[in-house]
Each structure stands twice: as C-alpha cells, then as structure tokens.
Amino acid sequence: MTAHVLFRMILVALVIGTGVAPGVGAAPSFAESGSASTWRVQTPDIERAPYEYDMPPGQPEVPDVSVPPSNKPLSPEELQRAEALLPMLGGKQELWAMGEFVHLGKPVVPVLIKALTMPNPRVRYNAIETLLLIKDPSAVPALIPVAKAPNEMPRIREHALRVAVRLDPALAPPAIEAMAKDEESVIRKVAAFEARYVRQKVVVQPLINLLADEERYVAITAIQSLWLLTRHESEMHNWEASTKEERGEWAKEWTEWWNGDRETFQLPEPRKPRQPSPQN
Questions:
Q1: Which of 9, 51, 118, 201 is the most exposed place for a label (fewest CB within 10 A)?
Q2: 3-state secondary structure of 39
Q3: Is the model's pLDDT at 99 over the cut of 50?
C-alpha cells in the first residue's frame, strides 16, 4: 500500500467520523430544541443530523447601586466641605468634584453660584455644567448676568445661556436680547440659536434684527429660528449665498409682517416628532 493510498483512506475516515468535509466550513445556526435554545452546526455536504450544543448561561442582571441626590439642607460640615471643593472644579479631580456636588443635590446650588465669579475660568465653566446636572431652575437668575457680561469669555457666556434656556427658558429673553446686539459674532449666533427654544413673542424682534447681520451664518441661524418659532410663510430667498444688502432687504419683509401682526399673533404649538411607522 502506497503512502498516497494510505493518506486517502485516512481522509475518508475523517470525513465519515466528523461529518465535515475538509476545506468546508461548518455553518452555525440558531434553533429551538424543546424548551432550551441550542446552537446547531450544519453539515452542508453530507446528510447528517446537526450537532447540538447548549447555549452559554445568560448574564445576571446588574443591580442599580447608584445613590440618589440629597434634598436635605446642608449641615455646617457639608457646607464647609462644599465650599472647599469649589477650587477643585478647575483641577485634575474636577469630574470627581462635580460628582460630589451633584450628590449634595439642590441645596448646594447657592455654593456653586459663588463659583461663577471665581477667577479660574475652568471653575466657572464646570460650575455651570454642574448646575445643569443638578437641574435646579433656581440657578437661572445667576446664569443670566454671566451670559450678558461683555467681559466674560465667549465660551462661558454661551454655556451660561444654553444652561439657562434648558433649566427655565422663560427667564432667558433678557439675555437673548442683550447677546443679539453683542460685538462678537459667535455670541450673536448662540443668541439666535437658543431663541428657538424660548417660546415667547419677545424674542421675535431680536431675531428679525439679526436677519441683516453682517455675518451670514448669524443671519441663517436667525431665519431658521424664526421659521421654527412662528411658521410664518415668508418669501423664499437664497440665504446661503446672500449678501448683507440682500439680507437687509429681506429683513424688511419680516419687519412689515411683524409690525402688522405683533398684537394678535400667537406662537403655534411646537411640532411633535414623527412617530415611527409600525413595521408590517
């Protein structure tokens, strides 16, 4: 018996014994077997019953061990500790410090408001972010002056306005009106953008004033907010390729409409997001 014939006999024995032809990958499939789920390995080239393997055990549910924020008034010790944490909002442990403030909950808001005037800008920014996480609208009256302050960093002013709008949009119009007249174009743009979330007629005129802005992206943001707020069917113009002079002419159309309808106009209800259609 030659070595070649011996090799072929061994190969045939392997095929019969395993049910899988050499060079052919077994295709796994998921199937139900009785009451237990099993994995089946199909043998495409040989008519054999598939092998079945038990599914691996499921992962146990992880219990929720998070600690809810406290709503109790701060004790003298907690108050002292909170004030000592303020400088850490601008250091390497800033995330840990923010977590500590969030755990102390709404009673710590007056302490965080003190951080809005601290010299370190990172402390001021992270204090605003922490106020957003605590979600207490009582912080908004302290955020409005920060958003309006012309000497504050633009990044911090933007963040103060965004957080104020999300916590209590009804108090945001004074900041939007002031920021819409700011010398910095990025500040005018954020005022135009956040105005769409303030459902009050008082923000319409500042938005109309921004339609003729020298920066095109500010005007485009303002017209988008106006459409979302009022749904007024204005003339269609190419705002993307417009000049300052063209935007000034188009702004007159909105001014004429607003001057005529200001007293009787009511903001429409916001559009609800479309529900996904049921799958057949």
A1: 9
A2: strand
A3: yes
Smallest Cα–Cα separation from 225: which of 268, 254, 196? 196
Provide the sign of the torsion angle of the four alpha carbons 119, 125, 127, 128, taken in this order. positive
Biggest CA-to-CA distance, the chain = 107
Q: What does the pLDDT look like over 182-220, one tens digit per residue?
A: 999 999 999 999 999 999 999 999 999 999 999 999 999
pTM value is 0.71
Q: Is the pLDDT of residue 121 over 90?
A: yes
CA distances from 175 to 1, 84, 89 (A): 97, 31, 25
> Are the C-beta atoms of 43 and 20 separated by less than 8 Å?
yes
Q: Three-state SS string across 193-256, please?
A: HHHHHCCCHHHHHHHHHHHHCCCHHHHHHHHHHHHHHHCCCCCCCCHHHCCHHHHHHHHHHHHH
Rg of the chain on CA atoms, in Å? 32
CA nearest neighbour of 105 among 72, 81, 76: 72
Question: Would residue 135 be called left, alpha or beta, if left means φ above 0 and alpha means ψ between -120 and 50 degrees?
Answer: left
Q: What's residue 34's pLDDT?
A: 46
DSSP 8-state symbol, 135: T
d(Cα 264, Cα 24) in Å, to the nearest integer?
77
Rounded CA separation 88/17 (Å)? 69
CA angle 70, 158, 265 (to 5 degrees): 95
Helix 140-148 to helix 154-167 angle (10° resolution) is 150
How many Å apart are CA 67 and CA 127, to the nearest integer?
Answer: 21
Could you report the per-residue pLDDT of 220-253, keeping only the tens digit for each? 999 999 999 998 887 788 888 888 898 888 889 9
Tokens standing for residue 223: 């017209």
